[in-house]
Design goal:
Elements: E1 7-10, H1 13-23, E2 26-31, E3 34-39, E4 42-48, E5 60-65, H2 68-77, E6 83-84, E7 96-99, E8 105-110
Parallel strand pairs: 1-4, 5-8
Antiparallel strand pairs: 2-3, 3-4, 6-7, 7-8
């Protein structure tokens, strides 16, 4: 079985950890120079990039979950801004996005779609 893991920049690894843990991610491993997080079976890694500009960060990734509607409701109830993302119908109506503190885009959608 093959898998892929995004490795994204973080201006502040502790802030990145706190933000994602607030969303329900768990820490797999953390040090001063690398951060590994998990949400269910999905992993995402972060490396320190202190000069990361949130207004100019092109990093992003896609998280596939079984119930994106429920996750959106949960995160919205936490006060997280969940953005609508215009997509082709093949992705279904549930795709949304969250911008992390460094300007990285986390898109969330159904596990059973592209």
């Amino acid at each position: 079985m093959a898998s892929s893991v995004p490795i994204l920049p973080s201006a502040d690894l502790e802030r990145t950890r706190a933000f994602h843990c607030f969303l329900g991610f768990s820490v797999v491993d953390a040090s001063d120079d690398y951060l590994r997080l998990r949400y269910d079976d999905a992993e995402v890694h972060f490396y320190p990039a202190p000069d990361t500009d949130p207004g100019d960060n092109a990093a992003g990734w896609y998280l596939r979950v079984e119930e994106p509607e429920e996750l959106r409701e949960k995160w919205t109830a936490y006060g997280v801004e969940c953005l609508d993302v215009p997509v082709p119908p093949v992705f279904g109506p549930t795709l949304f996005a969250v911008v992390d503190p460094d300007g990285g885009l986390l898109r969330v959608g159904p596990a059973d779609r592209l």
